[in-house]
Amino acid sequence: MSLNTVDVENYPSILRTKAAQVSSIFDDLGLPQATVYPSEPVHYRLRAEFRLWHEGDSAYYAMFDPAAPKIPVRVDEFAIASQAIFKLMPALLKAINANAVLSKRLFQVEFLSTLSGDMLVSLIYHRRLDEQWEDVARTVSNELNIQIIGRSKKQKLVLDRDYVVETLTIDNVDYHYNQYEGGFTQPNGALNATMITWAKQHAGPQQGHDLLELYCGNGNFTIPLSKQFRKVLATEISKTSVKAAHENFLLNNINNIDVLRMSSEEFTQALNKERSFRRLAHIDLDSYTLKTVLVDPPRAGLDDGTRQLISRFDTIIYISCNPQTLHRDLQILTKTHAVKAFALFDQFPYTHHMECGVILEVRG
Questions:
Q1: Residue 23 has what pLDDT?
Q2: How far apart are CA 241 and CA 252, in angstroms?
Q3: Where is the active site (predicted)?
Q4: Domains of the chain
């Protein structure tokens, strides 16, 4: 895929080939046939970042090909970016090139947008920012109706707020999320909503039982699923994500979720009563009836202890960003559980990356 063009016409064929390749990784496990969820072929990516390359008195957006990492590739249009980013890029670049205060030693521009139209831009510099920069940046922020953050070494200037507010519609209900600069969010908003809907449908109503979620992030899955369970106990290690999660519970009037700032390994130790933690002083683990677990781990997948922990649950909802580590984990989990559903979500069209979802039920 060119940085400036995408092969929209051939996207269905590209997706079929990729889905077949990913599915073949699991051939030895005999999984059900995967349900494949396509992306929009253009304007699907809610985040983008570019180097700003200076030539003479002007600058342009650039990216780098891994095969030639020292040669900038000029990016005049970025068709995979959301419509909001796509439209903003030339207007922002014009403002940068029109003002030396804004462009001086600016080397990176990061965009964070939402399906609901909010926009945050981070301008990253090789110099310290002052009041003059802040005045110019505020003018541009008002003219373009965007949020701007200025960054340099050991400095962060937030003109108004350092997050966007996203709204996802799941089963005809709107859910609202504060998504912070630097915090993890799913880059393909439409496919994210599809994944949440898929997980909700397969979890089913479990009002008499509770949900355990590991790696909960900012509450992306947690909040919609909380309506189907009596209580939810969730873990997350990132301070930024935990802060966002608590704010998002309030935004959505959700009061049946507890989030623990713990790694999955630490929580496993706590649940096994191998260690005690001050962070758990207010939580009575024995009060939970945990029969369903949702995991959405990083690319490394699950550690041994977490695999052993979730194998105790009746139902496992496993969202994976790495088919290879998912396959490794399923080789162990399918000894105790049967895979009832398998889905592929094309979060990153035109690349080899594929998001997977698996539903496992304990064998009788």
A1: 97
A2: 16
A3: 321, 321 (nucleophile), 355 (proton acceptor)
A4: 11-41+188-362 (3.40.50.150), 47-164 (2.40.50.1070)
Vertex 72: Cα angle to 66 and 74 (nearest 5): 115
Q: What is the DSSP string of 185-233?
A: --SBHHHHHHHHHHHHHHH--BTTSEEEEES-TTTTTHHHHHTTBS-EE
Mean pLDDT of the chain: 94
Give the C-alpha separation, 194 to 345, whole Å. Answer: 8
Q: Which residue has the tokens 């110019």?
A: 136
Enzyme catalytic residues: 321, 355
- Identify how many contiguous H helices and E strands the chain contains and give both numbers: 10, 17
Instruction: Identify which of 265, 251, 72 has the alpha carbon closest to the alpha carbon of residue 179.
Output: 251
Which parts are annotated binding residues for S-adenosyl-L-methionine? Answer: 186, 215, 220, 236, 296
Mean pLDDT across the stretch 225-247? Answer: 95
Q: Give 185's Cβ-side CA count (13 Å radius).
A: 30
Using CA atoms, how far residue 100 sits from 72, 76, 129, 133, 186, in Å, is: 22, 21, 13, 10, 34
Mean pLDDT, to the nearest integer, of 107-112?
Answer: 98
Whole-prediction pTM = 0.93
pLDDT at 4: 54
